[in-house]
UniProtKB/TrEMBL annotation:
Keywords: Antiport, Calmodulin-binding, Cell membrane, Coiled coil, Glycoprotein, Ion transport, Lipoprotein, Membrane, Palmitate, Phosphoprotein, Sodium, Sodium transport, Transmembrane, Transmembrane helix, Transport, Ubl conjugation
Coiled-coil segments on the chain, per record: 502-529
GO BP terms in the entry: regulation of intracellular pH; sodium ion import across plasma membrane
TM ranges: 6-23, 35-54, 66-89, 101-122, 134-154, 166-196, 216-239, 260-282, 288-314, 326-345, 357-380
Single Gene Ontology MF annotation: potassium:proton antiporter activity
Organism: Eurystomus gularis
Topological category with respect to the lipid bilayer: Multi-pass membrane protein
Lineage: Eukaryota, Metazoa, Chordata, Craniata, Vertebrata
NCBIfam families attached to this UniProt entry: b_cpa1
UniProt main location, coarse: membrane
Entry's Gene Ontology cellular component terms: basolateral plasma membrane
PANTHER family: SODIUM/HYDROGEN EXCHANGER (PTHR10110), SODIUM_HYDROGEN EXCHANGER 1 (PTHR10110:SF59)
Residue ranges annotated for the Cation/H+ exchanger transmembrane domain, each copy included: 6-380
Name this polypeptide is given: Sodium/hydrogen exchanger
Keyword Membrane: yes
Length: 687
C-alpha cells in the first residue's frame, strides 16, 4: 500500500538511512558508496539493461530532440547554474567568496545532468507514454558524454595556472572525441559479440556469457581512455541484439533477459540504499545560502531550458510537444547517484569545499527523488497525460508499419529529400545484403522479416501458455514454422533470381490468412472497369431522358407559339435550298403531301431549331385538298426519343407513348387566332 504512493527509490533511501543510523548507533563506521564501486560494478548492469532493451524505433525517430535536450540542455544547465552560483559566492561574504569560477562551473556540470537510474526508477512506475519516456530517459543516457567532458575538463583546468584559448578549443573538440569514441568502441564490441554468437550452436550454455562479457569489456575499454562508457554500453547493446537473438537458442535469450533485469534491479536497490547510508556516514558542511541557492537555481535552469528548447524544437517537429509534455519533461529531470559519485571523486587538494558540494548535491537528490518523484504520479493523473498502452504487436500492425515505412521512403525519393526514412531504408538494405550474411548463421540470415517476426510471436505465445498452465489450450494444428523448427528440411539449391522459395511464399500466405483481421462484408464500391450492369438502369435513364426532353419541348413550343412565323422564301430561294440539300426536303412516304415539321428536342430553345421538312402547298400533285386538311394546316411530328446509343438528330421516328401523344396534342394547338384583317393563311391556297 505504501509503494503505490511513494516510489520504490524513496523507500530504499529511507531503508538506507535507517541502516546507516543503526550502524552508527552501535558505534561502527557505516560504509560509504565508493565511486570506483559505483562506476565499475553498480552502474554498468543498469545501463546495459537499458541499452539492450532500448525501444529503437521511438529512439531513432526522436533522436534529434533527445540530442538537443541532452547536449544543449545540459550545457545550458551547467553554465547557467555555475555562473549564478559564482555570483552568489561572491556576494555572500567571506564564508563563500573563496570559491572560484572553475570550482562553481565544475559543481554546475556535476549537478546539471539528469540521472538515468532515478528516471528509470520513477518513470517505470507511473507508466508514462512512450514519447515522454524516451525523451527524458534518452536525455539521461546521452548527457553522460557532456557530463564526462565537462567534469574532466574543469578538473584539469583547476590544476592549470592559466587557461588559454587553445585549451578551451581543445576542450570543445574533446566532446566529439568522448561521445563518438564511446559509440565507436561500443559498435566494435557489438559486432564482435554478434560474430562470436554465430559459432556457439554446439555450446549453448555459454551463449549468455558472451553478451555480458563483451558488453562489460566495451564499458571498461571506453573508461580506460576517458571516453563515455555509458555511450559505449548503449551502442554495444543496440548493435548486438538483433544478430545475437537470431543466433542463440531461446533458453539463452530467456537467460539473458531475466539475468539482466535481475542484475539491474539489484544494482538499483544497492545504489539507493548506499545513498541513504552515505548520507548518514559522510562528512557534511551545511551552508544555508549555498544549498538553497543550488536547489532554486537547479529548478529555474531546468524549466527555462525546457521551455526555450521546446519552442525551438517544435518548429521542426511534426508531432508538437504540448505544454503538458513540457511540464512533465521539466518536472522529470531527476538527479541521482551519478552526481553523488562524481562529487565523491573530487580531490581535497584542489577542491577543499568538497563536503559542502556533497551536502548540496545530496539535498538536491533528496528533493528531486522525494518531492518530484512522489508528486509526479498525481500530477500526471491530474493533467490527464496520455499513459502507456500495453498492447501486443500483431501481424496486421507489423505489415502496416512496414508498408508505411516503404510509402514514406518512396515519397522522400520522389521529392528528392534525403530524410530519416531514406537513410533508414539504405541502412536496412545494406544490413540485408551484407551484414546479416556475415553475422547470422544458417538459413535465418535469409529469412523474410515477416516470418522472423511471426516466429518470435509464436514462441512468446507458447511460453505464456506454458507459464499460465494453459498447455491444453494449444491448438492441435501446429503451424508450419514450428514444424520446420522441429524437422528442419534440407535446403534446396539456391535460385539465381532473388525470389522467395515456394515454401516460404506459401508460409507467408498461410500466416496472413490466419492472422490478418477479418474485414466485414462491405457493399461493392464503384469501379468503371468492373461495374456490373444494372438491368433496370437503362429503363430509368430512358424515363429521365424523356421527362427532360418533354420539359425542353414544352419550353420551345411556348417560345415558338409566341414568336411570329418566318416569312416565306421566294420560289428562287426555295429551289436553291432544295437543290443544296435534297434529303432534308424529301417528302416522306407517310406524309401524303402534308407539310411536316420535325423538331429536334436536344437543340437550343429558339425558333430557329424548327426545320420545315417536306413543306409543300396543299393540293399540289393534282390532288385537291380535303376539308380536314384545310382545317388542320401544318402537322408537326415529334421525334421519338431514341436509346442512348442512337443519334437523336439524324434518326427521327414516331413515338406512340402516352407522353408523346400528350405532346402531339399540345403541339397541334394552332395557338391564338389572328385578327381578321391581318389573317393570312400560312400557305396560300391555289399556289
Amino acid at each position: 500500500s505504501v509503494s503505490s504512493i511513494v516510489p520504490e527509490s524513496c523507500l530504499l533511501i529511507v531503508v538506507g538511512l535507517l541502516v546507516g543510523g543503526l550502524i552508527k548507533g552501535v558505534g561502527e563506521e557505516p560504509p560509504i558508496l565508493k565511486s570506483n564501486i559505483f562506476f565499475l560494478f553498480l552502474l554498468p548492469p543498469i545501463i546495459l539493461d537499458a541499452g539492450y532493451f532500448l525501444p529503437l524505433r521511438q529512439f531513432t525517430e526522436n533522436l534529434g530532440t533527445i540530442l538537443i535536450f541532452a547536449v544543449v540542455g545540459t550545457l545550458w544547465n551547467a553554465f547557467f547554474l555555475g555562473g549564478l552560483m559564482y555570483a552568489v559566492c561572491q556576494l555572500s561574504g567571506p564564508s563563500l567568496n573563496h570559491i572560484g569560477l572553475l570550482a562553481n562551473l565544475l559543481f554546475g556540470s556535476i549537478i546539471s545532468a539528469v540521472d538515468p537510474v532515478a528516471v528509470l526508477a520513477v518513470f517505470e512506475e507511473i507508466h508514462i507514454n512512450e514519447l515522454l519516456h524516451i525523451l527524458v530517459f534518452g536525455e539521461s543516457l546521452l548527457n553522460d558524454a557532456v557530463t564526462v567532458v565537462l567534469y574532466h575538463l574543469f578538473e584539469e583546468f583547476a590544476t592549470f595556472e592559466q587557461v588559454t584559448i587553445i585549451d578551451i578549443i581543445l576542450g570543445f573538440l574533446s566532446f566529439f572525441v568522448v561521445s563518438l569514441g564511446g559509440v565507436f568502441v561500443g559498435v566494435i564490441y557489438g559486432v564482435i559479440a554478434a560474430f562470436t554468437s554465430r559459432f556457439t550452436s554446439h555450446i549453448r550454455v555459454i551463449e549468455p556469457l558472451f553478451v555480458f562479457l563483451y558488453s562489460y569489456m566495451a564499458y571498461l575499454s571506453a573508461e580506460l581512455f576517458h571516453l563515455s562508457g555509458i555511450m559505449a554500453l548503449i551502442a554495444c547493446g543496440v548493435v548486438m541484439r538483433p544478430y545475437v537473438e537470431a543466433n542463440i537458442s531461446h533458453k539463452s535469450h530467456t537467460t539473458i533477459k531475466y539475468f539482466l533485469k535481475m542484475w539491474s534491479s539489484v544494482s538499483e536497490t544497492l545504489i539507493f540504499i548506499f545513498l541513504g547510508v552515505s548520507t548518514v556516514a559522510g562528512h557534511h558542511y551545511w551552508n544555508w545560502t549555498f544549498v538553497i541557492s543550488t536547489l532554486l537555481f537547479c529548478l529555474i535552469a531546468r524549466v527555462l531550458g525546457v521551455l526555450v528548447l521546446t519552442w525551438f524544437i517544435n518548429k521542426f517537429r511534426i508531432v508538437k510537444l504540448t505544454p503538458k509534455d513540457q511540464f512533465i519533461i521539466a518536472y522529470g529531470g531527476l538527479r541521482g547517484a551519478i552526481a553523488f559519485s562524481l562529487c565523491y571523486l573530487l580531490d581535497y587538494k584542489h577542491f577543499g569545499m568538497r563536503d559542502m558540494f556533497l551536502t548540496a548535491i545530496i539535498t538536491v537528490i533528496f528533493f528531486t527523488v522525494f518531492v518530484q518523484g512522489m508528486t509526479i504520479r498525481p500530477l500526471v493523473d491530474l493533467l490527464a497525460v496520455k499513459k502507456k498502452q500495453e498492447t501486443k504487436r500483431s501481424i496486421n500492425e507489423e505489415i502496416h508499419t512496414q508498408f508505411l515505412d516503404h510509402l514514406l521512403t518512396g515519397i522522400e525519393d520522389i521529392c528528392g529529400h534525403y530524410g530519416h526514412h531514406h537513410w533508414k531504408d539504405k541502412l536496412n538494405r545494406f544490413n540485408e545484403r551484407y551484414v546479416k550474411k556475415c553475422l547470422i548463421a544458417g538459413e535465418r540470415s535469409k529469412e523474410p522479416q515477416l516470418i522472423a517476426f511471426y516466429h518470435k510471436m509464436e514462441m512468446k505465445q507458447a511460453i505464456e501458455l506454458v507459464e499460465s498452465g494453459g498447455i491444453g489450450k494449444i491448438p492441435s494444428a501446429v503451424s508450419t514454422v514450428s514444424i520446420q523448427n522441429i524437422n528442419p528440411k534440407i535446403l534446396p539449391v539456391e535460385r539465381i533470381l532473388p525470389a522467395l522459395s515456394k515454401d516460404k511464399e506459401e508460409e507467408i500466405r498461410k500466416i496472413l490468412r490466419n492472422n490478418l483481421q477479418k474485414t466485414r462484408q462491405r457493399l461493392r464500391s464503384y469501379n468503371r472497369h468492373t461495374l456490373v450492369a444494372d438491368p433496370y438502369e437503362e429503363a430509368w435513364n430512358q424515363m429521365l431522358l424523356r421527362r427532360q426532353k418533354a420539359r425542353q419541348l414544352e419550353q420551345k413550343m411556348n417560345n415558338y407559339l409566341t414568336v411570329p412565323a418566318h416569312k416565306l422564301d421566294s420560289p428562287t430561294m426555295s429551289r436553291a435550298r432544295i437543290g443544296s440539300d435534297p434529303l432534308a426536303y424529301e417528302p416522306k412516304a407517310d406524309s401524303e403531301n402534308l407539310p411536316i415539321i420535325t423538331i429536334d428536342p436536344a437543340s437550343p430553345q429558339s425558333p430557329e431549331s424548327v426545320d420545315l421538312m417536306n413543306e409543300e402547298p396543299k393540293g399540289c400533285g393534282g390532288l385537291p385538298p380535303s376539308p380536314e386538311e384545310d382545317e388542320e394546316g401544318l402537322v408537326m411530328r415529334v421525334k421519338e426519343p431514341s436509346s442512348p446509343g442512337t443519334d437523336d438528330v439524324f434518326t427521327p421516328g414516331t413515338g406512340e407513348s402516352p407522353s408523346n401523344q400528350r405532346m402531339l396534342r399540345c403541339l397541334s394547338d394552332p395557338g391564338p387566332q389572328p385578327e381578321p384583317e391581318e389573317g393570312e393563311p400560312f400557305i396560300p391556297k391555289g399556289q
